[in-house]
What we know:
The structure holds two protein chains of two kinds.
Chain A: H1 11-22, E1 25-26, H2 27-37, H3 46-58, E2 62-68, E3 74-80, H4 82-108
Helix pairs in contact in A: 1-2, 1-4
Chain B: H1 2-27, H2 32-43, H3 46-56, H4 60-78, H5 80-109, E1 120-126, H6 137-145, E2 150-158, E3 161-164, E4 170-172, E5 174-177, H7 181-185, E6 191-192, E7 207-210, H8 212-219, E8 229-232, E9 235-242, E10 265-268, E11 284-289, H9 295-312, H10 314-317, E12 321-326, H11 327-377, H12 382-418, H13 433-460, H14 463-472, H15 478-514, E13 524-530, H16 539-555, E14 559-565, E15 576-578, E16 581-582, E17 594-600, H17 604-608, E18 612-615, E19 629-633, H18 634-641, H19 644-647, E20 651-653, E21 664-670, E22 685-689, E23 699-706, H20 710-724, E24 730-735, H21 736-743, H22 745-779, H23 781-789, H24 794-828, H25 839-866, H26 869-874
Parallel strand pairs in B: 5-10, 7-9, 17-22, 19-21
Antiparallel strand pairs in B: 1-11, 1-12, 2-5, 2-11, 3-4, 3-8, 6-9, 7-10, 8-9, 13-23, 13-24, 14-23, 15-17, 16-20, 18-21, 19-22, 20-21
Amino acid sequence: MSKPSDLIQGTLDLLILRTLSLEPMHGWAVARRIQQVSEEVLQVTQGALYPALHRLEQQGWLRAEWRDTETGREAKFYALTKAGRVQLEKELAQWERLSHAVGLVIRTV
Amino acid sequence: MRSGVLERELDKELRFHLDAETAANLRSGLPPAEAHLAAIRRLGGVAQIQEECRDMRRTDYFENFVRDLRYAARNLARIPGFAVVIVLTLALSIGANSAIFSVIDGVLLRPLPYPQADRIVRIFFSSRQYPKFALNPLDVRDFRERNRSFASLAAITRNDRQLSGEGRPERLSGFSVTAGYFRVLGISPARGRDFTTGDELPGRGKQAILSDRVWRSRFGADPNVVGRKIVLDAEPFTIVGVMPPGVKHPGNEYHAVTDGETVDVWTPFTYSADLTSRGSHYMEGIARLKDGVTLAQAQADMDMQVSQLGREHPDNIKGWQPLLVPLYQELVGPSRRLLLVLLGAVGLVLLIACANAANLLLARATARQREIAVRAALGAARSRLVRQMLAESLLISLLGGCLGIGIAVEGVRVLASLLPPDFPRAHDIHVNFAVLAFTFGIALVTGLLFGLAPALQAARTDLQQTLRESSRSSTASGRRLWLRNALVIGEVSLACVLLIGAGLMLRSFVNMLRSEPGFRPQHVLTASVALPAAKYKTKASLMEFYDRLNAQLKSLPGMRSAGSGSDLPWTGWDDNLGGFTIQGKDPATNDEHNARYHVASEDFFQTLGIPLVRGRWFTLHDNKDAPQVIIINRVAARLYWGSDDAAVGGRITFNDHPKESDWITVVGVVGDVKDHPNRATAEPGIWWPLLQEPFGFPTMSVAVRGEESAARVAEQVRSTVSSLDPDLAVADIRLMDEIAGASFSTPRFALFLVMLFAGLAVTLAAIGIYGVISYSVSQRTHEFGLRMALGAKPWHVVRQVMSQGVNLAFVGIAIGVASAMALGRVLSSLLYEVSARDPVTFTAVAVLALLVAAAACYVPARRATAADPMTALRSE
């Protein structure tokens, strides 16, 4: 089980924001999506996921609402707010810069 | 409630996650039971997630805080003993410290009540023999005319005035001042005008400026009072001004009036035509430095001027140096050491209180280690645990602080009322809120620091080990125990220092009370009568008045004796007379022959109970026509004649070329009366008989020893004076006992405060020892139960527990005694006939401290044995 600290600091926020930029979804779906898309490499524990979701909501980047799922159960769906989109752009740019830099170092040395 | 909804939603969200996970597991082909278990495993600690999610919601902080406080309050309520002790510890230290600090602030630290008060200096003459001496009025005038360094220079001399013709005669405390006095202080009259140099001319000085108090109390706050004629000392005066309220007298040395709002009338000092002698010194100089002139520059300038004056008047100025002293230093100087010692005591008590609070909090943390470990194991976030401990410390500090504020406010009131009446600037004392905030802050920081440190430590410790250890451990873990022992040792040693200080002051106070005052103050009533110069123009008329007064008082029924004299013992009489010649001694040593001079009627000594050692008393035959005689005290007799016997019959003169009639014969030697009870020796003194005195004192003290009640005797004195002259006021009616008592008031006050501190310190230290031992006992209940079960006698357990506390006390006492030895020098000037290393005090304190420590250990030691071995064994 991959611990949150294995992810580069702050990356979890980016993953969540990016995932939610496609469509609103609930916590389990977010974890599931990240796991699938990363081909099972990135496993987000609930212990990290929910506090992160709550924090992002608190910061105003996510908006939460209770809605029925297709199975008819009520679940808490998270969606990106406008501020969240701006934040996502920022974090993406940040990530690009970082990974580019790391790539340069790895290849040159 | 919002938080309830949030909690439920969080719960629901996590349950949904669990269900979704289970469903996914089912879809991937796991059997139902296993699918659910796998989901739970993946989810991890639900409580922990919930906790962290709560943490993410910053808006909850305040709510959490309130909840933490409530939780802390519940926790503290479960241990009321601990809570009360620690809250009281903090409250006492905050309250007592703020109160004392406010007194010190009011007296020592607050600026004087004059604009730019740091520019005001007192001007004295100074010689080898008299470090501070008053000025001569002609010198003052010369200084003023040649002044370069001062914006204004003035001098004042005590000149009480008798106000008559406005109801009952009253003696107003007053000063004759040269023009510019109020400019030195930086105060102008609220009505009317200030004095000018023109008012100093002979025949012009019949003007008066009134204090706000007298203007209100005697003149009904009449707005048109300026220009009104009043009668002072049986002479017409014109009111030219009224001062604003709150004008404070800056204090003076010679015939002193306490500083504060103590002066009611100011009149111009008159340079009369017959004022030609530079020999008599009775003016007290005061000046305001010019902008940009430093004290040193002004001093240098005055040095030059005085040496110039010395060349102009070689007979009078020779040997005098000018001395400039900042007003602040002059006012506060004598009380400074006392207040600093008190400040030190305050600091020590504060330290002890903080150590005590720290100790109790540490002990509590030790006791809670297991509880914290359990909660951490159950998923409580560390930050949350720390916050809860913090809330508890905060609650304790806040409670202590609020109680402390109450104690401070009340304490300042009580302290101010206990202050000796002549204490400088006593009227400036109020609760100082900055100080209160400061001590409050210290208490708060102590509480938080020692509440937080164990919390952080507990949150960091290895849970498993703690759980395992504390279930069977018999002593508190080493490091924390060491810290607590050190705190107890520190407390005991600080308390010892305070106790030794208090003990020394107590011994010196007892010595002072026991020392022979040299007179018998019991049943003696005293009063003061001043004869206005306008009505009593000649020396003879003054003498006649007092002579008749004495005779009439003596003839009253029930009156044993009555007399009048220039001054009463212990009232600060300081008239010095220099330069007499002793028959048969080399006149070249002229300067060395000095004594304080006094006047006494024939029954004055007997009335005050001052014993005759050799020779005879004055009689009514020692009058103008008889040869001149004096009585001297034993100090003078021994200093100038070698013995009491040799002095009687000895002769002195004040004339450089004496005729036979200029010689004055010593007819008696009386016992010594110290000028102040806390001085070790008396000054040499000379008494003239009332009917021969050369000075013509208009103001005399009257002393009567009667059989009736004080009130009745006072009335008799008043009616006798009024039957002789209805315009005269009788002032300062006091029992000699009161005067004697008042002389002890400053040392008594200091003693009271230091004893208070020492008591507080000992109590706190005892609480500290008690706390440590009793926690250690409660931690070791198991061990003690085991021992008792195995046959140990209760006495063994008691001895073991007590030796733990007493050993700590031993170390503390040793350190305390050593520190007190080192600090003794600071106290020595406040002590009277006690060495600062007095072995009796040191031993007594050590024994007392040990006994207190033993008593503090005894209670928990008994408790250790009281437990039934079976219960003790089960107590874990």
